[in-house]
């Protein structure tokens, strides 16, 4: 009797083992969809306890992301989680009925590279109509099936932007003309968000400077022109906006003022196209002479005056990261404009910056919600990467071909300090002054050293040594901007990469020098 009972127990355990083994294979094969199938089957058959779907949830949990693991830990009953994922719609999974009855989901559109691609954008003073002009361009081209219309609220879509009526972060829209395909960046004009504007302009090949006919040139008009020249934007097109609110004489005065300003900043003030119109009239669809026709004239000027740059496709892939986000169930996405080279699905890459380094693989590429097999220099795209968490990524990091990038915190540069009339400060730069350095999409505090002089005056150019607190991706001939608070001090080019230094030691030296200066000033006052 005991022998027969022992055989029975062994057979029972072997049976359970086989059931669990095939059950595990089922769960791993079908994933969450398998849970849906089990849940629906149990519901139809009257199994109220949902034993199998609960067990499936328990088995599949180790293979799910961190967020779903946490959800199961918090829930006292696994069934609650199983029910939750069944009742929550997702992009990738559906319930049993939908899986069997629904047609396959439409695949994502493929980006067709049949025209030259150009990155352009609107720059100018706050409230001069940059976002309105961007929306008006999409509306006019939407009528010709060359763009999807983006309303003002779709471009300034953050709650804070809507509340304050200003653009805070640079936003990108897509459109095309007969000659080109465009990625259009709408840059912030408010002084508080100038660092976001710097990030936006670094992605541009050309720009539309928007100036209100009612105001003329303003402080941010000058600063945006200065930054555009510094980062290498060679040609601009001018749109004098709000022509419906200013008389002819005022419009002519503003045009003369702009041409003088363009010449002052090194642009061709005589040949630069200037279009006078009203973005609001184009957006409202009224007064075509000031509205729609002027938008078409602007687009024609962009096509003919702003040249398509020669893309650097032969060098190793390099892209500064300007944004990152996560797609549930798929992974982390990084976005930016490719500076040089090409990237394809399946390529291995390195990500560097802020003293850290990651190895990753590109599993997908998209541009304007269309899939790409290959991204090229000049493309503003998003890349799906694996093996890296969203929390680890941030703007300012750089992604590139493995072994082609290096990080440093110490470099020498040739720099020009702006004079007071050019928008700079009227005080000289002294040794161990602390400034903010803007380069590519990153910004970092740095301590300055002056090798050849005791100080550098506004309006002068000279050699400065920069000591940053964190290592960033740097290379010779890289351009950058130097700011102090709300003021742009100057701009420069990296001339030499120096051996890394300890920021803490530099900070101690800076404090000691500051203490000596203070003591000397007090002694002189006595």
Could you walk me through the main structural features you see in this protein, from its secondary elements to its overall organization?
The protein contains 14 helices and 21 strands. It is of the alpha+beta class. The chain has four domains: 2-101, no CATH class; 117-305, P-loop containing nucleotide triphosphate hydrolases (Rossmann fold); 318-400, Beta Barrel (Elongation Factor Tu (Ef-tu), domain 3); 407-511, Translation factors (Elongation Factor Tu (Ef-tu), domain 3), CATH 2.40.30. The strands form four sheets. It has a six-stranded mixed beta sheet with strand order 2-3-1-4-5-6, with helices on both faces. A hairpin with a 2-residue loop joins β11 (356-367) and β12 (370-371). The radius of gyration is 29 Å and the shape is flat. Residues 504-526 are annotated as: Disordered. It catalyses: GTP + H2O = GDP + phosphate + H(+). This is Elongation factor Tu.
